[in-house]
Amino acid sequence: MLFSSPEFIFVFLPAAFAVYFALVHAGLDVAGRGCLVIANLVFYAWWNSAYLLLLMISVLFNYSLGSELGRMHRKGSIRAARVVLTFGIAANLGALGYFKYADFLMENYATATGGSHVALNILLPLAISFFTFQQIAYLVDSYRGQTLEYDLMNYALFVSFFPQLIAGPIVHHSEMMRQFGDSRNHRMIPGNITVGLIIFAIGLFKKVAIADTFATWADAGFDGTGPLDFFGAWAASLSYTFQLYFDFSGYCDMAYGAAMLFNIRLPLNFLSPYKSLDIQDFWRRWHITLGRFLRDYVYIPLGGNRAGEARVLSNLIVTFTLGGLWHGASWMFVIWGLMHGVALAAHRVWRGAGLRMPRPLAWLVTFLFVNLAWVFFRATDMASAKRVLWGMVDIGSIRRTTLDSLPTESLAWAGKGMDWLLAVSPPALAVQAPVYAALLLGFALIACRNPYQFVTDHPSNAMTLGAGLLFAIGIYVMLGSTSTVFLYFNF
């Protein structure tokens, strides 16, 4: 069920909200939370009920193991707890590996050994990467004695809460289960409802009116088969860069807004990352909770900053390469993650040497690198990536497409003296004019303040009116088109 679908906006969300608060208002808090858990399961099963049992087994398995690890820590049974933790992590990663990477690993093994491979065609369970990471973090924290005596109801809410279930944020038990257990949140709070609806409306507009528009140009560029000229390749890469930005930003806004209706504040997961002046700052703003997980449960256990400089740099590269692989079973994701790991290592060396760039140049270098890396993230294979990348550096195509588009008599009349004019106003660029006009608007929008910075604490009547207008536009666009799935639902 898409956040941007009529079923969710007009049926599921109002029904879940009304029933939950009707029950808790009547003093039936446990029934209300139980109803919300059922709503979460219905939301998940809407996609494919076949994997609902997998989610339920995962919740029960990890809750039982986490509770046992907590008891072992209190008793001081560290060695036994380490065995249980290893088993729990292996079981979670085993399930994730089977459903997400089995075909990928078998195909690459067959290629390396010269054997044959019959595709298993395993259907990837929705959100398995997200709820697996959340629960691995819970097991590790239980082993460390950092979890409390949570009840199963609140744990089930923590894992399955529908605003964050499908594509994050990757929430931490300490920041979620405390909210579910707080009796002050078991009542309707008008201020939270207002903020939630405003941010949800902004997210809906980003998704259906902006991201899905850029998607048509990005798909046309990346999924085509013919060569791309300079302007076409940049139009494709930048369109995807903005599609992914507004798609994920829109999802994060809608998730945050929907959760606020239930008085639950999700952790901030997206904070204007294209304003970043370096790659480290980018990862403090883009998919913030994934970066937090990779830092706490991969980078630091590898040694983090505690080892020598060479080890620190290798830890960065390994961590983000694994982060790339987390996104999907493809060498394109591995390359993307490796690029970011190397960039973070290079940034550390650069900063350690005391080097600096002027702010405009720092922004430009960071943005261009992120845009370049997204090409591999979007491309289905290396051939597709090379096709776009070659077009992006094929400056000669500017003149070729320009000359091909002009009549012969004009060329004869113009002569070589008109070369400068052809370079300044090529007809090839005019063909891409709508795309580049939209890209200019995209740059203007990313320069604006993030909605969290001025909506969350002080919603005004003007903000409410503006959000209502965006919501109306979003609904109009949504009903008139077939909205694409949120991109992060694929991961």
Automatic annotation (TrEMBL):
Pathway: Glycan biosynthesis; alginate biosynthesis
Broad class of where this protein is predominantly found: membrane
Transmembrane region(s): 36-61, 81-99, 119-140, 152-172, 188-205, 316-339, 359-377, 420-447, 467-489
Superkingdom as given in the UniProt entry: Bacteria
Localization per Swiss-Prot or TrEMBL: Cell membrane
Presence of the UniProt keyword Iron-sulfur in the record: no
Keywords attached to this entry: Acyltransferase, Alginate biosynthesis, Cell membrane, Membrane, Transferase, Transmembrane, Transmembrane helix
Any one GO biological process: alginic acid biosynthetic process
GO cellular component terms listed in the entry, alphabetical order: plasma membrane
Any GO molecular function: acyltransferase activity
UniProt topology in membrane: Multi-pass membrane protein
Family label: Belongs to the membrane-bound acyltransferase family.
Protein name: Probable alginate O-acetylase AlgI
The species this protein was found in: Pseudooceanicola pacificus
